Amino acid sequence: MRLATVDEVRVRWEMGRTKAYERLKVLVGAGLVVHERGVPGHGVYLASRQGLQMAGVGLAPATMSLGALAHDLAVAGLVARLERDLAGGALLTEREVRAHARETGDLNFRPTVSRRGMRDARHWPDLVLLTRGSPPGWLAIEVELHKKGSQRLQAILAAYRWANTSQPAFRLWGVLYLVPDRDHRRRLVEIGRRAGLAEDSRPVLLATHTLDQPDEIAEAIRRLWALKGAADAQERQAETHRAERQHRLDAERAAEHAAREAAVQRRHEELLALEAAHAPAPRRGLGRLFRSPER
Length: 295
Fold this sequence. Notes:
Elements: H1 6-13, H2 17-29, E1 33-36, E2 44-47, H3 49-55, H4 69-85, E3 89-93, H5 94-104, E4 112-113, E5 121-122, E6 127-131, E7 137-143, H6 150-161, E8 171-179, H7 182-194, E9 205-210, H8 217-277, H9 286-289
Parallel strand pairs: 7-8, 8-9
Antiparallel strand pairs: 1-2, 3-6, 4-5, 6-7
Helix pairs in contact: 1-2, 1-4, 6-7
């Protein structure tokens, strides 16, 4: 994360506010964390270069932007709760996804956004949740505090709709949008339908949740995962039925072919028998007719 307040630290590590302040004060004194006070409230905390190195995080120190502060804190609060409440999945922040793309050239987590009259662009999700399974996959999580234009939002959702089609072994299976209120949620669901995304769409599911119920977001992800599991089971069942139907068709075609071959063989044998029945009797030689009988 770029930054956090004492509240995100307290939630993530499930400690009281006083203890969280004491821990942060020690980290600031050791030069591992920077306390930026030039914001409303009690300020924000950022990991220093030394702190990142000690934690084994291969990222450059983050900077604070007042314009992006509300979004950054919303993402930090979301990460604190998801890391506390979710098990079996790893979260990657946008900074980590960008670093991964720079180091490896892997653009798996960046869908291509196409808009008429504009150059194609890559989109960075706010968070990536890596999920285990067969095959493994990932969930894109977006924190949408302000309304995007309908065309732009639809283009992003359409990009998610067709993401990772060339990588079936590690595929995007869902997108979760977190929005401020129900009006934003209804609008996003409608735009999602136009882009071909919904809670029952395949291969990518779309879900929405409001940010005013932060402690229920982990459960929303579990519900989305359950929907994916149900859809996968239906798809496997349908594939089994298709395979069984194809097997029956192949067996019927093989039986029909064998019956035709047998009929042809029987007809051939009947013709041979008919020809043999109507064949003329062999002639005797004339010499035998005039030969004197032996005494």
